[in-house]
Write a structure and sequence with these properties.
The protein is mainly β and 209 residues long. It contains 3 helices and 16 strands. The strands form 4 sheets. A 6-stranded antiparallel sheet has the order 2-10-6-13-4-3. Strands 1, 7, 9, 11 and 12 form a 5-stranded mixed sheet that branches. A 3-stranded antiparallel sheet has the order 5-15-14, with no helix packed on it. The N and C termini lie close together (8 Å). The relative contact order is 0.23.
Length: 209
């Protein structure tokens, strides 16, 4: 698979690089978060990250003063495994080099199936801040050069929290409500990933870098 750069024009389909915000405090604080070498961990909120000056800037300038949460996704990953989308943009800060596997929500079929051949790969160099638009399919970043990664994740407050309501079951025909696996998180998995309770609607290769 060709690995493009988030600085290429092709990335504009999926998001944008955010410049002009000093994230040095966040990068420094991220060094205190765990970085597994053989798995991936995700924490939607981290009080130390949310107390930083740069977090207030993102809340005000990028999310228009909406409440936000600042967490992280760290570790080692090589495969696509699933795609998810939100009703909002997601901000990623690459503390280390990492690779994003991205697609378009518009390419999901009416039966909520998705062809992994449509996925594109983008290198996010360390220190880069990217916004992924609400219609961008994504999941955990992939490791670059075989090394674990550190990634700050900023989202509207409550995203990826545990659901409170009852939602549609995974039955035929599948409806979008059945894809909701957490608050503001619609997910389609690859069958090879064996993600319990997820709609296994990705067909084609489970892309591995």
């Amino acid at each position: 698979m060709v690995i493009q750069s988030v600085n290429d024009a092709s990335f504009q389909t999926y998001g944008r690089v955010i410049r002009g915000i000093d994230v040095s405090d966040m990068i420094e604080e991220m060094k205190h978060t765990p970085m597994p070498e053989d798995t991936t961990i995700y924490e939607p909120t981290d009080p130390a990250l949310e107390a930083l000056a740069s977090a207030a800037v993102f809340r005000s300038r990028i999310y228009g003063e909406l409440p936000i949460q600042v967490g992280y996704c760290n570790g080692f990953n090589r495969s696509l495994n699933a795609v998810e989308y939100h009703r909002s943009s997601e901000i990623n800060i690459a503390v280390t080099d990492m690779i994003l596997l991205l697609g378009r929500q518009q390419d999901i079929t009416e039966e909520f199936r998705y062809d992994s051949a449509k996925i594109e790969a983008f290198l996010v160099p360390a220190g880069t801040v990217v916004e992924m638009y609400a219609t961008t399919l994504h999941y955990a970043p992939c490791s670059a050069d075989g090394k674990p990664f550190l990634c700050t994740v900023i989202l509207p407050r409550g995203t990826n929290f545990e659901l409170e309501d009852t939602h549609a079951a995974l039955e035929n025909p599948v409806v979008e409500d059945a894809l909701l696996t957490a608050k503001n998180k619609w997910l389609i998995a690859h069958p090879d990933a064996h993600i319990e309770g997820a709609h296994a609607g990705i067909f084609g290769e489970n892309i591995t870098l």
